[in-house]
Predict the 3D structure of the following.
Amino acid sequence: MKINELKPNQSRINLEADVVNVSEVKSFLRFGRAIRVANATIKDDTGETKLTLWNDEVDKVKPGNKVRITNGYAKEFQGELTVTAGKFGKIEVLGEGESVEGAESGEGESGEGAEETATEAGIETEATEEQEAEEPAKVEAEEQEVEEPVSQEESEE
């Protein structure tokens, strides 16, 4: 599959692409667990798109890598198509890709990094339905930056 063939809400995506850049990593709490997320821009000979990286994927994907996404899916977020491996897919680093001009780490092209991805529908796949049933009150804190939480009792003092 090629990037220009991707469509929103498409699943079972298998493609290979070169990593152009990786945004700053953002961390937040989801159901009491620290979650890390970053956006990468990937390209092939037909175009480019965003790749959302979660947790351990953040550490292994670097600018200039060639990656294989297996069983991924695509979502549209704020008018932009984004691919992720999600819960059932896999991202493999195949080595160095073609000469990727301007490959750099840090800010994404828009300079907005991964703040957007924390609210993407893709994050919802990180928690199972059982977890959501057990801890529904924690959903409101899903975008909270990782820091020491303040209890209601402490804030009233």
About this structure: The first strand starts at residue 13 and ends at 22. Residues 129-134 form the longest helix (6 residues).
